Amino acid sequence: MSERGEQEVEKISAQIDNSMEEHQSNNPTETSDKPQDTIAQKKHAAMIERLSSLHQSRLQQAISRKSDSSDLPAFESTKSFTDRFYESKTSIETEINRCRLATDSESKANLKSDLDKLSISISELEKLVAENSYFLPSYEVRASLKTISDLKETLESVNNELLPKKKFSFRNKSTALKKDQADVVTTEDENSGFDSVLAEKCSIKVRDSPGFRNKEGVVLIKSFGSSKEGYFTLSNLNSCEVRVTGCFRALYIHRMRNSRVYIGPVMGSILIEQVEGCLFMMASHQMRIHHAKKTYFYLRVRSRPIIEDCNSVRFAPYLLCYEGIDKDLKDSSLDEENGNWANVDDFKWLRAVQSPNWSILMTGEKK
């Protein structure tokens, strides 16, 4: 109960006590020679009853408020969020430094598993931001995302330093089939190193992860069987159609032109860099889009989508359907539509009026 509420209750209690004392002094138990004023007695009794009722009502409200406050979620304030966020950040940085400085044979033998665990920890930190971004100030979201990006770059650097990759090569295990004059690839290319076609000015590194790379004019299909599966990459695709079903942790998209991409629910984030003339249909907890032009986005997002250095991009609600998608959406905590697809933050547009770089795609205009 607040201090003000306690003061009000004490004041009411005092009024009740004073009224009762006054009533008793005006109505002694011994027989009085003066006639009793029955009207005054009724007024006193009515007033005491009203004050008592008010007193009980205030007490009940105070108890109810106290009970409600104890049921609030853990993250309903910026301070509680930042405390946990920076505690996790410090822990991750400490573990990264420990891996970097490891000298004994046992620690070196466990390096790969330790670095994999750190990657999962960073993904969980990213999920934490996504789940709590609905009440965080925009500057806090930006700062948290920048911190996560720095942690990812540091981890990539340590990975390259301690576990150097073999020379870049492709092994294409896909099966080509004729379908509407286009090839259909049903499994992803395996890449033993980083993508060799990154643009010099790319602000997001494409992770060493399974994915589709360096394709043109083909249909690419991938199905995830478990939400525990990790990252997936789409890079350097032109005039392709991509269909990914099931749920997984994160998606990285880099350099795509004139393509259509249909993605099942992503439990973490989707990062998009350098796309033009494309259509994306995807659901995730967090969405960041950089350097997109003349592209359509059909989204379901837990937090507000973020765009930067984009123009002529348009947004609409998620419409993807396939067998089992309802379960995938529920497993990924994306089964409810919150309308955030239309609440786009343009980090390069700081004015109070609507950004000219993006707009809503009306029903009659949908592709």
The whole-angstrom Rg is 31 Å
Mean pLDDT: 76
- Stretches where pLDDT is under 50 for at least 5 consecutive residues are 29-33, 67-75, 168-183, 186-207
Shape: extended
Structural overview:
This protein is an alpha/beta fold and 367 residues long. The protein contains 7 helices and 15 strands. Strands 2, 3, 5, 6, 7, 8, 9, 10, 11, 12, 13, 14 and 15 form a 13-stranded mixed sheet that branches. Strands 1-4 form a two-stranded antiparallel sheet. The longest helix is centred in the N-terminal third of the chain and has 33 residues, at 38-70. The chain is extended. The protein starts with a helix and ends in a 7-residue tail after the last strand.
Topology of this structure?
Blueprint: H1 3-26, H2 38-70, H3 78-100, H4 105-109, H5 111-132, H6 138-162, E1 170-171, E2 178-179, E3 182-185, E4 190-191, E5 211-216, E6 218-223, E7 231-238, E8 241-245, E9 250-257, E10 260-276, E11 279-301, E12 306-308, E13 311-317, H7 325-331, E14 345-346, E15 358-360
